[in-house]
Amino acid sequence: MSNVFTLVDEPLIEYVIDQTDGKEYGAGEYIAASAREISEIRVRVYDARQRNEPNIICAACHRPAYPRKNVKTGKFHFAHVSESDNQDCPYNDKKRLDTSRIDSMRYNGQKEGPDHKLLKRLLRASIDSDPLFDPIQTREEKNWYGATDENKWRRPDIAATRLLDTLSNLRIAFEIQLSSTYLKVIAARREFYLKENALLFWIFKDASGVNPLQYQDDLFYNNNSNLFVVDEETVRNSHEQGKLFFRCCYYEPLLAGTTVNDIWRERVVPFDELTIDTEHQRVYWFDYKAEKSKLLETAREILWAREEEELRTRYEDFWNSVHLGKCADPETTYRRLRHQLSMHDIDVPEHHGRELERFTQMVYSAKAGEGYLTGLKTLLEVANNSYLYGKPFLWYFGRVLQHYGTWDKLLTQDKNAEQRKKMTGKKHESWKEKGKIIKQKIDANDPDFKQNRSFDKLFALLFPEITLPTTK
Ligand SMILES: [Zn+2]
Questions:
Q1: Which residues surround ligand 1, an ion (CB under 5 A)?
Q2: DSSP assignment of 403-454
Q3: Alpha helix ranges (H) inside 155-231
């Protein structure tokens, strides 16, 4: 007899509302009771209908519905009490393409429960505490007709007008949202109030026990991840301080390493601390989107810097292993390195040829203060060699020497060499002189000293501590 409690495969009525608790139930969810309970429910529905009392109603057409057994299958479903209700119930339109009408009816059906009434009372009391809300214009469940099209109207739970400054008012439609959300219903309402240049303001019963992810796709997400609750505490606050208060529940994004985590927060806030964005029908206390994009940007920067650090190490490791003859497959290693560099918008030659090697040897030796990644031993040897064969990169070389104070070391080595040459009677061109000549020739655009600046980006990666002047 287990199939006694089973719902038929394609029930006409998918949801019912129990008006005694104001909640909506899936038809299969409600029927899952014992056979005795089912018949009790049936009696209850008929009695309530007779006495005009809160009943179990079809979520779509809001007319009484009762559980009925299919004689052939023994399965159950909900049926309208009056057969004729089947005709114009939105559920009957089997060929319906969108569910917006049913959603709208289901949504309105929720307004009949005790929770909804209680919340409306609390909200009304809070609004009435605030003298900036014009008491004459605060109205409950009154039709709001469109200014441009009078045939279009909505019936917000509470409509109110708040004085913003001496010149302007803000008209607000407060809608109470108890449990489920209906995206299409919400979108249609938002559109209506936007045309009215008014604000649609959603109020929740509570957010504890609400899974915020459930709201992610619609209301919560669209409202900058803020939702507002009216409860006993906020009503007391509104009353004591003479202004409208809400409990704002929101996500605060926090950065952990390079990941942004959302932390759930709650805070009681007055109306005048809220940001009103009528154009996007948003109202929020905490600017989640702005904060999140700021943190994501920081995370990106951290990640980028980390990658650059890694690239720097790889680049040096590559040339070191080439220099020591320990690189098993330089072509492939270089190709990968080149690809990674290009991801950071840094172009290097297709092959790791002599030019790139010379540039690398020069700048790294200048930093080390001795020959590095080259067979040359001293800085002076590297400098002399560069003066002969690495002229196009002398500008980079000079900047590293200057930054690391190795220029002085070069001059000292040079002076000692001069002493030795004097003893042998050879002529010596000092680096002090050469330094001046190089600078003059570069500044004068001497063709012999034309600088190759195609490695500026690579240089900036290898030496982030050295600020490059912008190229002319
Ligand atoms: Zn119906």
A1: 58, 60-61, 89
A2: HHTHHHHHHHHHHHHHHHHHHHT-----HHHHHHHHHHHHHTT-GGG----T
A3: 183-195, 212-215, 219-222
pTM of the model: 0.69
Ligand 1: centre distance to CA 90 (Å): 6
Alpha helices in 199-353 (DSSP H): 212-215, 219-222, 232-241, 288-323, 330-343
Q: What is the DSSP letter of 469?
A: P
**CA 13/CA 91 separation, integer angstroms:** 6
CA–chain centroid gap for 2, Å, is: 48
* 96 alpha-carbon distance from chain centroid: 35
Phi, psi angle pair for 283, to nearest 5°:
-140, 130
CA 472/CA 141 separation, integer angstroms: 70
Residue with tokens 């004085």: 163
Judged on CB neighbours under 10 Å (0-12, 13-18, 19+), 273 is exposed
Q: What percent of the chain has pLDDT over 70?
A: 92
Amino acid at 230: V
**Average pLDDT estimate for 240-265:** 94
Determine the distance separating the centroid of ligand 1 and the alpha carbon of 70, expressed in angstroms.
18
Residue 439 phi/psi, 5° resolution? -60, -45
pLDDT of residue 354 exceeding 60 = yes
Residue of 87, 92, 76 lying closest to 26 (CA atoms):
76
Tokens of 36: 């005795």
d(CA 308, CA 314): 10
For residue 180, give the nearest of 48, 385, 17 by alpha carbon: 17
Q: Which two tokens stand for residue 221?
A: 């997400």
Residue 262 three-state SS: strand
Measured in Å, residue 104 CA sits from the centre of ligand 1 at 13
Helix orientation angle between 406-424 and 379-389, rounded to the nearest 10 degrees: 90
Strand order in the sheet with 259-270: 139-140, 158-163, 169-177, 199-204, 226-229, 245-256, 259-270
State in Å: Cα 64 to ligand 1 middle: 8
Q: Given this model, what pLDDT does residue 216 score?
A: 46
Instruction: For residues 165 and 81, give the distance between their C-alpha atoms in angstroms, rounded to a whole number.
Output: 54
Bridge partners for 169 per DSSP: 163
CA of 81 to the centre of ligand 1 (A): 10
- DSSP per-residue codes, 317-336: HHHHHHHTT--S-HHHHHHH
CA torsion, points 21, 27, 32, 36, in degrees to nearest 10? 80
CA of 12 to the centre of ligand 1 (A): 8
For residue 406, how many other CB atoms are within 10 A of its CB?
19
Element (H, E) at 246: strand 245-256
What 8-state DSSP symbol labels residue 274? Answer: S
Range of lowest pLDDT (145-149, 167-171, 274-278, 398-402): 145-149
